[in-house]
Amino acid sequence: MRKLMFAAILSVIAFGPVAARAGEQSVLVPSVVPTSATPIASEGFDRDKAFAIGAGIIVGAAAGSALSLRGAVIIGAVAGGLLGAWWYGDSSEFATLEPRKK
């Protein structure tokens, strides 16, 4: 039994390098270099809002870690991120109620 196992291990080791070969030659793709000197950023990206969301995630995760429930940190982080986005949100994103008729 020992000789059989030894022969099997040697055959696997011997056939490994033969079977491990490259199928195709890899092709290098040239990268596109931006022509402008200004950094590329999307028009709608707001650093302050991203900071508010990130701070909400951290505070929510810290608050969730105080609970002993399974997954409370993740739920706290998501809730904190949503709260941070809501806190920093523009007033145009929320619908306003019409005044009551008198």
Report on the structure:
With 102 residues, the protein is mainly α. It has a domain of 45 residues. 53% of the residues lie in helices and 0% in strands. The chain is built from three helices and no strands. Helix 2 packs antiparallel against helix 3. The termini are far apart. The model has no long low-confidence stretch (mean pLDDT 76).
Key terms:
3 helices, mainly alpha, elongated, 53% helix, single chain, 102 residues
Helix percent reads 40-55%
Order of helices and strands: HHH
**Mean pLDDT, nearest integer?**
76
Overall geometric form: elongated
Distance between the termini: 97 Å
The count of DSSP E runs of length 2 or more, i.e. the number of strands, is 0
Unreliable spans are none
User: Which value, in Å, is the CA radius of gyration?
Assistant: 29 Å
Binned strand content = under 5%
Please describe the biggest sheet, giving its number of strands, its sense, and whether it closes into a barrel: none
The helix-and-strand class reads mainly alpha
Question: How many helices in DSSP terms?
Answer: 3
